[in-house]
Structures are given as structure tokens and as C-alpha cells.
Amino acid sequence: MKIIREKSGFSLAETMILLAIIGVMTTIAIPNIVEWLPAKRVNGAIRNLAADMHWARMKAVADNNRYVICFDIGNDTYSIYNNLVTCNPPPPNPIKQVIIPDYYPGINLTMSTFGILPGLIFQPRGTASNGSVELETQDGDRCKRITIITTARVRISDCPT
Prior knowledge:
It is built from 2 helices and 8 strands. By secondary structure, the protein is α+β, with helices and mostly antiparallel strands.
């Protein structure tokens, strides 16, 4: 008695056609992903900075002490200090220091305006100094701004053009 086996699986031609289709789709998708990355990096960096601002405010209230975030535009860093008087020059040993390009390659700190002190002050009552900070991609194509007011409300927006 002869046993007849059914053929299953894909032929070599079908597999090659599938690989060609995947290759074409990948070729189309990669440039879009490359364009998409800087926007996501600047959004992530600005949200991380906003989270650190919220954390510093909570610590200021909880510890009943001033917390200051000092911004160093030249080195693309910001540092958080407990009960600091001045950011010029920034003292050693911050509670936290973030070097933005280490976490978000291609993102720069481009502007920080907080009045006399080149940093953001959170008072023990939860209030803050007015000002804003901008982060931008290296090519200047994408920019995000954090604006903070006296009540310590943090607002993220696109930079004005």
C-alpha cells in the first residue's frame, strides 16, 4: 500500500517574494523612524526635567527647606541642591545631576531665565521663582519650553518661533 503525503510549508520562491516585500517596507519605514527620533528625544528630555521640578518642589515642602535647580547651558546639565544660596559657581555634590546628552543624545539646553539666580528656587511653602527653560535638538529643528510661575505650576509648550 502506497502512503501519500501532503506537501506543507512554503516554497523557496514564496519565501524569497516575502523577503523582498519586507525589504521594500523596511526601506520605506527607516527614514520615517529616523525623522521621528529627535522629536521623541526632546519630548522625553523635557518631561524628565518637569518631573525633576515636581520632585524638587515636593522635597522643599516635605523638608521645609529651599531646593534649587541650577542650569548650566554650556555643559547641557542641570543639578538639584538642598538649601543653596547661589548657582555661580555651582557647588560640588548636588543631590542629583543630569547631563542631558548622556540620556538624550542630540538634545541641548539652550535657555534658562530665572531672574537673578541662574536657577529655579522652590521655597518651603511650595512656591517657585518665575522663569523658563528651553531644550532643543542640535539642528534646531525641534524645541520645547518649560515655563514655571510663582505657584510652581509647570507648563510644557513648543518654543515660540
